[in-house]
Amino acid sequence: MDVVAYDFKKDKKAQAIAESLAYYRIRENSISASKSDLLKHNFTVYRTFHGFNLVGAIACMIGFLFTQLLIKPRYIKTINPRDSKTFTK
Predict the structure, then answer these.
(1) How many CA atoms lie within 13 A of 47 on its CB side?
(2) CA quadruple 11, 13, 15, 20: dihedral positive or negative?
(3) Sign of the C-alpha dihedral computed for residues 47, 53, 54 and 60 taken in this order
(4) What's the per-residue H, E or C state across the chain?
(5) Of 1, 18, 20, 39, which sits most exposed with the smallest number of CB within 10 A?
(6) Measured between alpha carbons, how far is 61 from 58 in angstroms, rounded to an integer?
(7) Whole-prediction pTM value?
(8) Average pLDDT for residues 59-65, to the nearest whole number?
(9) CB within 8 A of 43, min separation 6: which ones?
(10) Cα–Cα distance measured from residue 35 to residue 61, given in angstroms and rounded to the nearest whole number
(11) Of residues 17 and 44, which shows the higher confidence score?
(12) C-alpha angle 73-74-76 in degrees, rounded to nearest 5
């Protein structure tokens, strides 16, 4: 597969494609399947791997949740795959 560099700043346009670029597998008993298990795992990583005390781990979890729940959703953009027109800035 050849990789071709394209200067979007020069042309200021892009086209949507209809094919999937990523595929995900769903497994039973995975950490990310249960959000409460995922939070427990993240908290354990802050405590054991990073060596934070209880207050430090809680502060990191608050920062993580703030970012995930309040900041990140603002950057999500929805693209309608049926509308494959050329987008112009």
Answers:
(1) 9
(2) positive
(3) negative
(4) CCCCCCCHHHHCEEECCCCCCCCCCCCCCCHHHCHHHHHHHHHHHHHHHCCCCHHHHHHHHHHHHHHHHHHHHHHCCCCCCCCCCEEEC
(5) 1
(6) 5
(7) 0.52
(8) 95
(9) 57, 61
(10) 13
(11) 44
(12) 65
Would you state the structure tokens that stand for residue 13, as one six-digit string?
Answer: 């346009």
Compute the distance between CA of residue 13 and CA of residue 88 in angstroms, rounded to an integer.
5
Top pLDDT among 50 and 34 is at: 50
- Give me the residue label for tokens 């795992």: 41
Given the structure tokens 């060596």, which residue do they identify? 51
**Which are the contacts of 56, defined by CB distance < 8 A and separation ≥ 6?**
46
Structure-block tokens of residue 26: 């769903």
Q: What is the mean pLDDT of the chain?
A: 80
